[in-house]
Structures are given as C-alpha cells and as structure tokens.
Amino acid sequence: MPVHQVPRVDRIERDPLERGGPVVIAGGAHEIPAVGRWTVPYLKQRMGGVEVTHKRSRNRQHPDFTAPTIKDWFATGRGPFGELLDAMTTGPADARARLLFTGDEHPLVKRRDGVTTESPELAALLPDVRVPAVVPADRLYTIWAWFSGAGVRTWLHYDNNGCHNLNAQVAGRKRAWLFDAALAPRLELFPAGGPNPATNCSAIDVDDPARRAQLDALPRWEAELAAGDLLFIPANWLHAFEHLGDFNANVNFWWLPAPNP
C-alpha cells in the first residue's frame, strides 16, 4: 500500500479540522509560549527539584510489551525532574531512550463536567501553555506534557479517551505513523479480558522486521514534526511516534468531538 504524507498547511479553521483526517499545521504552535522557551536549563531552573513519576523501559519501546511481565510493561520511576532531564539528555544513547515523561502520572490540566484541575507538580509550567485557537474551549478534556531524549518509540495505540488530539511539538523533532480508526480490526488490538489491560494498543511491534510486511499492506500516514508544528490526530486513529531530537518536549490538547446533531 502507498504511504501517504500527512498534509501540511499554514493554518486551518476549527470545523474543517474536526471533519477531516490528520493534518500538520506548520508553525501553528508558535502561539504557545513554551515553544522556544522549554530548554533543559530553563525547565531545571523552573522546577528541577520537583519530584515526578516517569515511565521506564528495558529498551526504547514505551510501553515495552515484549517484556516478560506486566510489571515490566508499565514500569515507572520517581525522582527530581532535573535529574530526569539530565538522564534523558546525557550518557549512553540506549539508556536515554529508556526514559519517558508523560501526562499519565501528571496531567497538566483536566476538565471534567465543567471542573478544571491543574497539576500541582507542574504548576510552574502552566504559564507557558496556551490552548490553540482551533481547540474548542467548551470541549477541552485534558492537557498533557511529554519530555524525552532521542530514540524513544511509543507503542502503536489509539487514545482511549475518545477525543481528538492536537499534538504541539514544543522542542525537538518527532516522526509519526498513523492508521485510520477503521483499520483497528486489522491491527490486532489486545483483546478485552486478556492478560494485557491496554486494549487500545496493537499487539504489533512496529520495530519488528517480521511484522513490517503486515503493516506495509495497510495504508498509513506519516509525518515529521519540527519545533513549532501542530499535528491533528482525529479521535480513535492509531498512532506511534519516534522521538528524534536530543531533547523533545510536546504538549497534547485533547477535546471531545462535537455531539451528533
């Protein structure tokens, strides 16, 4: 099957965004103050001593579903944020890729039933985050921050909150693979009631050469994000990222799809 490049546009209105497929808004994240500001020295100065939880893996895969136990799949560590940033960006490359900070443990913002909750651990970062104009404020659901070094690969999955996802590349670079939600039955999601509770994840390791022919038989979309870009991922589309920069920072904005008329 041909590989499609995600279209790149300079700007887009909200309604066409929600009705279409994935799209990169080139430079669209520059309205977010964190872009150009979130460097390792800046983040360490702002909250280097704050204790945070992060994800750990035996290798660059997050989660690493090839590991022997469920404890290994979802392994975490905890320590000062500044030390985590140092470990992500210095030392052996394979060790840097084993670490990943996501909003799973520390969502920047959650909004449920009209009530907004902000992360106490990441409070120092909130002034640097501005919700892009294309995100409908009345349907905002969650805002996450992500931090990583080079080489991290996120496992192929869809976001199980049922939301659209606007991924802002704040620092570094990422490469994305995306598959239409309609292809989920052909991507071997872990079954409900099985040993793996992450039923929004595919059983296919996209780094496994033995699986490439199966994946290449399906249409997919690819995109590369540079600092300042926005990637729109429609609700329920499957995606996997490869983190390419020596230091990568992202902010994700999730919002609920418009109700059916």
Please tell me about this protein's structure.
With 261 residues, the protein is of the alpha+beta class. Helices cover 15% and strands 33% of the residues. Strands 2, 3, 4, 6, 7, 8, 9, 10, 12, 15 and 17 form an eleven-stranded mixed sheet that branches. Helix 2 runs antiparallel to helix 4 (81-89). The chain is globular, with a radius of gyration of 18 Å. The model has no long low-confidence stretch (mean pLDDT 95).
Helix content: 10-25%
Kindly estimate the percentage of residues that lie in beta strands according to DSSP: 25-35%
Number of helices: 6
Order of helices and strands: EEHEHEEHEHHEEEEEEEHEEEE
What's the overall average pLDDT, rounded? 95
* Shape category: globular
Instruction: Work out the radius of gyration.
Output: 18 Å
> How many strand segments?
17
Indicate the low-confidence ranges by residue numbers.
Answer: none
Determine the N-to-C terminus distance.
Answer: 35 Å
Structural class estimated from helices and strands: alpha+beta
Largest sheet: 11 strands, mixed
Briefly characterize the structure.
The chain has 261 residues and is an alpha+beta fold. The protein has helices at residues 14-19, 40-47, 70-73, 81-89, 93-96, 209-216; strands at 3-5, 8-9, 23-25, 51-56, 61-62, 76-80, 99-101, 109-112, 115-118, 140-149, 153-154, 164-171, 173-179, 220-226, 230-233, 238-243, 247-255.
